[in-house]
Amino acid sequence: MQGAMVRHQQPATGRNKPVPRGASRMVAKEPLSARLPKPNFSIFKRLLWPVLLVAAGFGAYEGAQRLMPYADRPITKIAVQGDLSYISQQAVQQRIAPYVAASFFTVDLASMRTELEQMPWIAHAEVRRVWPDEVVIRLEEQLPVARWGEDALLNNQGQAFTPRELANYEHLPQLFGPQRAQQQVMQQYQVLNQMLRPLGFSIARLELRERGSWFLTTGAGSAGPGIELLLGRDHLVEKMRRFIAIYNSTLKEQITNIARIDLRYANGLAVGWREPIAQPAAQPAVAKN
């Protein structure tokens, strides 16, 4: 009988070590901070910023209210700037006197500017504060270019204004037209005057009538006595070019005898001659003894 052979096996080491089973098995524990729910502070952050802003604004307002009596001073200086030819600083000072009685922060600059621009000779006004007690006013005067009708002047923008005295501006050209056409008449005057100037003419009168016809009168000058140009309703520049061409070729030598030129024709013009000046009759000689 063969004996049974028993093989003695060595216990496994390392990775072959048996894993404990059953209730005796050990489980690794997670940290407490990982197992507890994390607090959510996003709502508090959203509420915090508005609260801080409101608090800062309230603090600034309270600080300003407390400092205002010390910072808000009476207006003691008025500086008027600009090249003034037609209006005096004294007149400006008198005009704004009711406004400068206020303090530095309470003075109404917008109303002051409006009041100044209502003065006839002021085209534009700028008003600003200068710390601690000064108001600076910069003025731009009207630039009179022509008379408008009998009672007003026109500036270079075609805007009418009415100074108290017009006697000193009779040398300016006189423009007429409907009130709505002030800028149109001014623009037409500037164009036509520029065309006539090389000939030695200047415009003394330009009129736009209600039906749309234009009438121009030149002033007496180096080119001779004034003449009247009848321009019609449209194509004024083309008609003026035609007049200039015919004037240089034909009419220049006879301009002193011409009273008016009608340019309302399609391809030509008509000349109205001056009445000849009657020569005084010769006095008969008286024989003396």
UniProtKB/TrEMBL annotation:
It comes from the Bacteria. PROSITE patterns: POTRA (PS51779). It holds the Pfam family FtsQ_DivIB_C. Residues 73-142 form the POTRA domain. GO terms for biological process: cell septum assembly; FtsZ-dependent cytokinesis. The keyword Protein transport does not apply. It is found in: Cell inner membrane; Membrane. Residues 1-24 are annotated as: Disordered. It is a single-pass type II membrane protein. The keyword Cell division applies. One of its GO terms (cellular component) is cell division site. Keywords: Cell cycle, Cell division, Cell inner membrane, Cell membrane, Membrane, Transmembrane, Transmembrane helix. Its main location: membrane. InterPro entries: Cell_div_FtsQ/DivIB_C, FtsQ, FtsQ_C_sf, POTRA, POTRA_FtsQ_type. Essential cell division protein. May link together the upstream cell division proteins, which are predominantly cytoplasmic, with the downstream cell division proteins, which are predominantly periplasmic. May control correct divisome assembly. Belongs to the FtsQ/DivIB family. FtsQ subfamily. PANTHER family: CELL DIVISION PROTEIN FTSQ (PTHR35851:SF1). Part of a complex composed of FtsB, FtsL and FtsQ. This is Cell division protein FtsQ. The lineage of its organism: Bacteria, Pseudomonadati, Pseudomonadota, Gammaproteobacteria, Pseudomonadales. The gene is ftsQ.
